[in-house]
Amino acid sequence: MLRFYHCTTNLQYNLKYLINLQRNTFKTFIHNTAQSLKCTQKVPLSLCSVTKFGLFITSSSAVKLYFGRAAQCKVSRTRLTGYRSISDKDLQFDWNKLWHYLKPHINFFLAAILGALAVAILNIQIPQLMSGIVNVVARFSDTRDTVIFLKEIKLPALRLLSMYIAQSVFTAFYINMLSHLGERMAYNIKTDLFSSVLHQDIAFFDQQRTGEIINRLTSDVQDFKSSFKQVISGGLRATTQIIGCAISLIVISPQMTLVTLLCVPAVITTGSALGSLLRSTSRSAQAQIEKSTAVADEAVSNIRTVRAFAMEELELDMFEREAERALVLNERLGLGIGLFQGGANLFLNSMVLATLYMGGYLLSVNQLSPGQLMAFLMSTQTIQRSLAQISLLFGSVVRGMAAGARIFQYINLKPGMPLTGGKILPSETMRGEIEFKDVVFAYPTRPEQVILQNFNLRIPAGKTVAIVGGSGNGKSTVAALLERFYEVNKGSITLDGEDISELDPTWMRQSVLGYINQEPTLFATTIMENIRYGRPDATDTEVIEAAELANVHSFVIGFPRGYNTLVGERGTTLSGGQKQRIAIARALLKNPSVLILDEATSALDTESENIVQQALDKAREGRTALVIAHRLSTIKNAHIIVVLSKGRIVEMGTHEELKNLKAHYWSLNFQQNSGE
Ligand SMILES: Nc1ncnc2c1ncn2[C@@H]1O[C@H](COP(=O)(O)OP(=O)(O)OP(=O)(O)O)[C@@H](O)[C@H]1O
Predict the structure, then answer these.
(1) Boundaries of each ABC transmembrane type-1 domain copy (predicted)?
(2) Which residue in 217, 331, 510, 635 is a FRET match for 228, CA 20 to 30 A apart?
């Protein structure tokens, strides 16, 4: 009778414990779901609210989530038409790549695994030791002989205490190892990802949005790292505990184990099916988040244009629409995870009920001791806790694998044009003669639109060739091809007789070509460092010399902090002319043999243009120069002028030769008259 009393007390305790456990598990789940939905409102966590939440999920709201919001989202104004988000089927998690990042830190990995296993094994032992203590307590609850009780309880209690201490030491150890592993892998992945992005062809940036790239570098890497850590620690520990405790259960009572494990296969099958569905939803959700980031990124980085056109509301509207789509997908994901979690809980609770039912019966027919029933219940609870943990981990695995697939996709992208490798011409013999021979070119993003058709042009060493022509006729394209931003489709471009596709691109860009375009981009640092960007090893004196050559010095000395003046993001605190002159100084610091001036003064007013033009004229002296021109003033010092129409040269000659034609071309709309 007494034994039965102890047992029922224990069972009651265990039931309470289990209910609390369920509640906590649910709390964690709701918290995680709220986090994943980026939900800002606080979620009430009482059991009653949990029930409401469950009802909410399974009621009409679910229907609304799937159909209502999705339908609302169909009407939208978007800037993302043609936006290349990667479709699900293109994205596969690359396990080899994971191994590549894991291998260098295998020591931390093994240490973390061993630590987590040790914790799991200790956790498996604890119910057995607890069983010993319960049996002693049960034996002495009748006799009440304190002295003998204290003597007998001492050993099992000390064993349990040492087990608890060992468990906490190993816990601290494996978490530390895992932290090293996760952080180092994330560091390597992040740097490789950034390196891969920086090495991509310019065509890649014509297609991808900055927001998407930044998203992969930040939130995807973060998601991947945290889910990797969780899977290793939680997943490994939970799996070991499930296996260990299952063995303990069989040893304690095979009949009870059979009852509790009857429904496992059904759960595994349902879980796998739901899993694959959720993975796909997760990938779509992440791709959609990228889209909303891309909209925000463009609006913030072009805030002056947005303000000038009073487009704040429209930008907000576009952002809301993209964010809402992400919300719908994330809610769908939350619903899926919720259903999965709910099903898992039902299974786990049924297991406990079956154990209590069967255990009570075996106790009543003296086939089980109170200690054994206690150990059995504790082991079932450990299994239940572990299964609950695995079901929670499931959501994180889904997100982590989707994030990993997207990160590895960028890392695995091989650029068509490597940045380094190829011939380097000796500087002593370098003349700087450029020749375009029968060049045919179409941009990779629009292969059907041929921009240059059998384009031939020779720029003699030390001479300036100016290309003029109407807008959209391919002038800047000529400059971009010389910079090797793109490869020609046919024909060749040579430097001193060598095909530039055979030359080392980095050497060419660092030592041969100086490129200045219409919109000079400065970095958010000092004027000194912006100029030094042209040649990082240049001394301060060399920087100032280049600045003097580019007419920068005259305005910099007027600034209170001189060359240490910060220019603001993209140089917003400077005038257009000042920015342009800094860009010229930056290019001149390289002492390039060939200058490419792509409408370098067309954005300036006449006064600034004159100052910048003087700087450019000085810079051109003794160098080969390709000048893309919009204005007559830009070409007045050119040795040869080329008139370009629809990618073909229609006129070519000196100022004198083109005198009459020039007036004709500049006074009329060139595009309308070309080719006539
Ligand atoms: N990155 C790109 N991808 C696809 N097409 C492009 C790209 N850049 C330019 N184009 C197209 O190539 C054609 C030539 O453009 P390009 O910039 O060379 O003209 P341009 O003569 O320099 O014009 P402008 O004087 O207005 O700068 C245009 O039709 C343009 O739309």
Answers:
(1) 110-399
(2) 331
Ligand 1 midpoint to CA 19 (Å): 67
Residue ranges of domains in the chain: 90-253+370-416, 257-367, 432-674
Adjacent-strand bridge partners of 30: none
Name the token pair of 237.
Answer: 């520990």
DSSP per position, 413-454: PPPSS-SS-SB---GGG----EEEEEEEEE-TT-TTSEEEEE
Residues 525 and 566 sit within 8 Å (Cβ to Cβ):
yes
Q: What kind of architecture, by CATH, is found in domain 432-674? A: 3-Layer(aba) Sandwich (3.40)
Nearest protein Cα to ligand 1, atom 19: 472
Are the CB atoms for 549 and 622 separated by under 8 Å?
A: no
What is the C-alpha separation between 642 and 468, in angstroms, rounded? Answer: 6
Q: In this structure, are residues 643 and 665 in contact, taking their beta carbons and an 8 Å threshold?
A: yes
pLDDT by residue (tens digit) across 304-341?
677 777 778 888 888 888 889 889 988 888 888 888 77
Closest ligand 1 atom number to CA of residue 203: 1
DSSP 623: S
In the reported structure, the alpha carbon of residue 658 is separated from the centroid of ligand 1 by a whole-number distance in angstroms of 25
In DSSP terms, 626 is beta-bridged to 465, 596
Q: Which residues line ligand 1 (CB under 6 A)?
A: 206, 443, 445-446, 451, 469, 471-477
Measured in Å, residue 209 CA sits from the centre of ligand 1 at: 19
Token duo for residue 636: 């007045």
The predicted-structure confidence for 273-294, as pLDDT tens digits, reads as follows 777 777 778 878 878 887 888 7
Q: What are the structure tokens assigned to 354, written together? A: 């079956």
Q: How far is the CA of 447 from the centre of ligand 1 (A)?
A: 13
Element (H, E) at 650: strand 648-653
Residue nearest to atom 6 of ligand 1 (CA): 443
pLDDT at 1 exceeding the cut of 80: no
Rounded distance between C-alpha atoms, residue 569 and residue 567, angstroms: 7
Q: How far is the CA of 474 from the centre of ligand 1 (A)?
A: 6
Q: Which two tokens stand for residue 25?
A: 């598990």
State how far the Cα of 585 lies from the Cα of 608, in Å rounded to an integer.
16
CA of 477, closest atom in ligand 1: 18
Distance CA 154, CA 135 (A): 13
Nearest alpha carbon, ligand 1 atom 26? 471
CB 225 within 8 A of CB 178: no
- What is the position in ligand 1's atom list of the atom closest to the CA of 473? 21
Q: For the chain, give percent helix, strand, coil, nearest 5.
A: 65, 10, 25
- By DSSP bridging, strand 624-628 and strand 464-468 are parallel
The H or E element that residue 456 is part of is strand 450-459
Return the CATH number of the domain spanning residue range 90-253+370-416.
Answer: 1.20.1560.10
**Tens digits of per-residue pLDDT, 247-274?**
888 888 887 777 766 666 666 677 767 7
Integer angstrom CA distances of residue 173 from 32, 115, 118:
26, 6, 10
Q: Which atom of ligand 1 is nearest to the CA of 479?
A: 18
* Ligand 1 midpoint to CA 472 (Å): 5
Report the percent of the chain where pLDDT is more than 90: 17
Atom nearest to 518 CA in ligand 1: 27
Do 645 and 469 form a contact (C-beta atoms < 8 A)? Answer: yes
Using CA atoms, how far apart are residues 172 and 181, in angstroms rounded to an integer?
14
* Residue of 476, 597, 602, 649 to test ligand 1 pocket, by largest number of atoms within 8 Å of CB: 476
The separation between the first and the last C-alpha atoms of the chain, rounded to the nearest angstrom, is 113
- On average, the pLDDT of the chain sits at 77
pTM of the model: 0.69
In 3D space, the residue among 275, 246, 269, 278 whose CA is nearest the CA of residue 384 turns out to be 246
Q: What is the DSSP string of 100-131?
A: HHHGGGHHHHHHHHHHHHHHHHHHHHHHHHHH
